[in-house]
Design brief:
Elements: H1 6-23, E1 47-54, E2 81-84, H2 86-89, E3 98-103, E4 118-125, E5 146-150, H3 151-154, E6 165-172, E7 181-187, E8 190-196, E9 204-211, E10 218-219, E11 221-224, E12 227-230, E13 239-245, E14 250-257, E15 266-268, H4 277-280, E16 298-305, E17 332-335, H5 337-340, E18 349-354, E19 369-376, E20 397-401, H6 402-405, E21 416-423, E22 432-438, E23 441-447, E24 455-462, E25 469-470, E26 472-475, E27 478-481, E28 490-496, E29 501-508, E30 517-519
Parallel strand pairs: 1-5, 2-4, 16-20, 17-19
Antiparallel strand pairs: 1-6, 2-5, 3-4, 3-6, 7-8, 7-15, 8-12, 9-10, 9-13, 11-12, 13-14, 16-21, 17-20, 18-19, 18-21, 22-23, 22-30, 23-27, 24-25, 24-28, 26-27, 28-29
Length: about 525
C-alpha cells in the first residue's frame, strides 16, 4: 500500500526531504478538541503521524482491503478512506473508525494546504516494510503511526509532489446514513458476518448471534477486519445479532435476517449507534441466559479420554497448559464443534449427569459431575455421527477426562447419553494473566475465571498510553495485541460472557518478561 506511493516519495525526497527532516522535530501543540462519545477511546488532543497516498486519482485502487468492506463506493465509504499502520490498525479492531486529519504546517509548511482538514474511515491495513528504514520508505513500520490515505482524501490537505507529509490527527465520531448492515458469507457451520455502516465509534468491540431455534446468545469471534464468525449451524433460521461498539453501547437487532436467507445477502437494519443511545440501550446488555439460573437440562452424549489420571488431557485447544497447576484438575472436557464455539466456550462449566432414561444399565444413579471446558473435540468425517464420529456437527458432545466421566458412567460402556446444563464456575483467588509472545505481539492467557468462566472481550492499556486498545481472541483462552507494550505497566479491561466487566489496573508491573504469570485480587461473581 504505502509502497505504491514510494515512487512519488522518492521524487519528493530530492526536492524537500532536507527541509522536511529539519522541521519534523518542531513541536506541534496538543490542540484540545471535543472528544468523541468515549474519552477512553479518543484522547482529546491532536496526535502526530505521517501520511502517504495510494489508489489513484479515483481511489479505485483502495477497493477491497484488510477490513473486508470490498467495494467502498457501494458500501458508502467512498474515497475518504485510509490504510492504517500496525500501531493504529490494532489487528482489525480499528476497522471503521474515523479520523480527522490535518497537514502539520509547523513541520512542513511548504507541503501543506492551509486551513483544511479531512475525515477518513479506516478501511485497510498498511503493512510494515522491513527492507526499508522507518524514516525512508518503511513508513508503516512499528511503532510509527501512519496513514496511507486514498489519493483524493490526501490531496485535500497535501501538495501532490510531496508524496509524504507530516500530519496531526484525532479520532472523531463517524456519521452514517441509515442503520447498521450485515452481510452473511460462509457455509453451513461457518457463518461469516461483515458489519458495515457503523456510526459513532465506527468499530465493533463484541458481537453475539442467536438463531430462531435457540434462546441463547452465542458469542461470535472477530475473524478478520470487520468480519465476525460463528461455527454454529444456523442455515434456514431467522438470525438476531447483539452488537457492542467500542464505547460499550449495545444494540440488539432482533430477527434482522429472515428465515430462508442465502449466503452473500446483505440485510440493512433501522437501528444505528448514536450518542443518545448509550443510556437507552444499557438494558439490552443484561444477559438473557445467565448461567446462574439455567432453565433446563439438555441432551448430549459423553465419551472419555486422557487415562485414569487424566494426564492425557493436558494442553489442549484452550491453551491452559498444565491443568493441574492451573487449578482445573481432572474434571475437564473437550467440547464438540456445536459447544466449543471456536474457543469462546473455553473455561465454561457444565454440570453433567448420565441419562438413566436412555441407558439405565450404563449409568451410576443419583450423581452429577461438574467439568470445565478445556479442549476441543474435532469432527471425524470418516465415521458416521452415531458410530465413532461422536463430535461431528451438529452433535453436542463431551469428551471428558476419564476420572470425571467415571463419576457418572460405567467404564465398559465407553459412551453414554447425558443431560447437561451450564452452571457458574467456582474459583479460588482472582483472575490470572500469563503473557507470552514477543515485541509487537503480546499473547495473554486468561485463567481462573469464575462465574461465566469465559471471556467475551478484552482490552489492554499500557502505562505510556491513555486509552484502551481492544485485544483479539487468538485461540482458545488466549488474547493478543499488536501494540508495542514491552517495559510498560499493563492494565486489562475484561468482559465475561455474562457482560460483567472488571478493570485490572496495573496488574502487570513495568519490567515484566514474557512467560510470567500475574495473579489479580479481582474476580467475577
Amino acid at each position: 500500500m504505502a509502497s505504491r506511493a514510494l515512487a512519488l516519495v522518492l521524487l519528493a525526497v530530492a526536492v524537500g526531504s532536507a527541509l522536511l527532516a529539519a522541521a519534523q522535530d518542531a513541536p506541534s501543540p496538543p490542540t484540545p478538541m471535543a472528544p468523541s462519545p468515549s474519552t477512553d477511546e479518543t484522547p482529546p488532543v491532536w496526535l502526530k503521524a505521517h501520511a502517504t497516498f495510494y489508489g489513484g486519482a479515483d481511489a479505485s485502487g483502495t477497493m477491497g482491503g484488510a477490513c473486508g468492506y470490498v467495494d467502498l463506493y457501494s458500501q458508502g465509504y467512498g474515497t475518504r478512506n485510509a490504510a492504517l499502520s500496525t500501531a493504529l490498525f490494532n489487528d482489525g479492531a480499528s476497522c471503521g473508525q474515523c479520523y480527522k486529519i490535518a497537514c502539520d504546517r509547523k513541520r512542513a509548511p511548504q507541503w501543506c494546504k492551509p486551513g483544511v482538514t479531512v475525515t477518513v474511515t479506516a478501511t485497510n491495513f498498511c503493512p510494515p516494510n522491513w527492507n526499508l528504514p522507518s524514516d525512508n520508505g518503511g513508513w508503516c513500520n512499528p511503532p510509527r503511526p501512519h496513514f496511507d490515505m486514498a489519493q483524493p482524501a490526501w490531496e485535500k490537505i497535501g501538495i501532490y509532489r510531496a508524496g509524504i507529509i507530516p500530519v496531526m490527527y484525532q479520532r472523531v465520531p463517524c456519521v452514517k446514513k441509515g442503520g447498521v448492515r450485515f452481510t452473511i458469507n460462509g457455509h453451513d457451520y461457518f457463518n461469516l458476518v461483515l458489519v458495515t455502516n457503523v456510526a459513532t465509534t465506527g468499530s465493533i468491540k463484541s458481537m453475539d448471534i442467536m438463531g430462531s431455534n435457540s434462546t441463547d446468545w452465542m458469542p461470535m469471534v472477530r475473524n478478520w477486519g470487520a468480519n465476525w464468525h460463528s461455527l454454529s449451524y444456523l442455515t434456514g433460521q431467522m438470525l438476531s445479532f447483539r452488537v457492542t461498539n467500542m464505547d460499550g453501547q449495545t444494540l440488539v437487532f432482533r430477527n434482522i435476517v429472515p428465515s430462508g436467507w442465502k449466503f452473500g445477502q446483505t440485510f440493512a437494519s433501522k437501528l444505528q449507534f448514536n450518542a443518545s443511545t448509550a443510556a437507552a440501550n444499557t438494558a439490552t446488555t443484561t444477559p438473557t441466559n445467565p448461567v446462574a439460573a439455567p432453565t433446563q437440562w439438555q441432551k448430549a452424549h459423553a465419551t472419555f479420554y486422557g487415562g485414569a489420571d487424566a494426564s492425557g488431557t493436558m494442553g489442549g485447544a484452550c491453551g491452559y497448559g498444565n491443568l493441574y497447576s492451573q487449578g482445573y484438575g481432572t474434571r475437564n472436557a473437550a467440547l464438540s464443534t456445536a459447544l466449543f464455539n471456536d474457543g469462546a466456550s473455553c473455561g465454561q462449566c457444565y454440570k453433567i449427569a448420565c441419562d438413566r432414561k436412555r441407558a439405565p444399565q450404563w449409568c451410576k444413579p443419583g450423581v452429577t459431575v461438574t467439568i470445565t471446558a478445556t479442549n476441543f473435540c474435532p469432527p471425524n468425517w470418516n465415521l458416521p455421527s452415531d458410530n465413532g464420529g461422536w463430535c461431528n456437527p451438529p452433535r453436542p458432545h463431551f469428551d471428558m477426562a476419564q476420572p470425571a466421566w467415571e463419576k457418572i458412567g460405567v467404564y465398559s460402556a465407553g459412551i453414554i447419553p447425558v443431560i447437561y446444563q451450564r452452571v457458574p464456575c467456582v474459583k479460588k483467588g482472582g483472575l490470572r494473566f500469563t503473557i507470552n509472545g514477543h515485541d509487537y505481539f503480546q499473547l495473554v492467557l486468561v485463567t481462573n475465571v469464575a462465574a461465566a468462566g469465559s471471556i467475551k472481550s478484552m482490552e489492554v492499556m499500557g502505562s505510556n498510553t491513555a486509552y484502551w486498545m481492544p485485544m483479539a481472541r487468538n485461540w482458545g483462552a488466549q488474547w493478543h495485541s499488536l501494540a508495542y507494550l514491552t517495559g510498560q505497566g499493563l492494565s486489562f479491561r475484561v468482559t465475561n460472557t455474562d457482560d460483567q466487566t472488571l478493570v485490572f489496573t496495573n496488574v502487570v508491573p513495568p519490567g515484566w518478561k514474557f512467560g510470567q504469570t500475574f495473579a489479580s485480587k479481582l474476580q467475577f461473581k
